[in-house]
Each structure stands twice: as structure tokens, then as C-alpha cells.
Here is the input.
Amino acid sequence: MLKLKNHANNLNFVHLLPEDRHLALTSCLNVVKVWDLRVGKCVTHLLSSGLVEDGTNQPIARDTGELPMSEFMIYKAAVDAEDKFMFTTYGTSIRMWNLEKLQGIGSVAQNHK
Here is the structure.
């Protein structure tokens, strides 16, 4: 059994991509981790700000559970039926991600009253 470890807090999202991609997604605090299931390691971090980081780095701020400046808690994540796009909600915004390129496409901000 493969364990996807080293999350700074409780997970709020887990998703397995199709078998030919060998990837899994998990979300905790301000980051969605992209895991390579063949080796059981995190390979990419998708941050709430839209930045993409090497998944082998583990910044100290995430270890303490504190959010880095300009980052927000990711509340929910969802993947489209074809596993091509992911949507994350943070603050009052929604960010769209291209899962084939593992990069942010953009975000929509909504002011809630």
C-alpha cells in the first residue's frame, strides 16, 4: 500500500488521475500536491496564488501550518470529467488549472456581500 505523506494539516481533497498518467492530487492548506504514484513522491506543488513549485521542496511555513504571504487556504478542489482541468477555491476566488501542463490558467475573483 502506498502512503502519500507529509501534509501540514488535514487533507480536503484527493483525486487519482487516469492510470496512464500515474498521478494523484491531494490538497492541504494552500497547496495541491501532485504525486507520481510510480515512485510515491510529490513532484509538483500547485499553490493558491497560481505559482508552481518543485514538489521536492518543503518550505518551513507549510510545515508549521502557517500560510506564506500572498497565499490563501484552498477550501475545495474539483476536477472536470475528462481530468484535464482542476478548479480550486480560495478566499473569494476560483483558480483554474491545466492538469496536462500542470500550470495555472487564471482566476476569477468574486466579491461576496
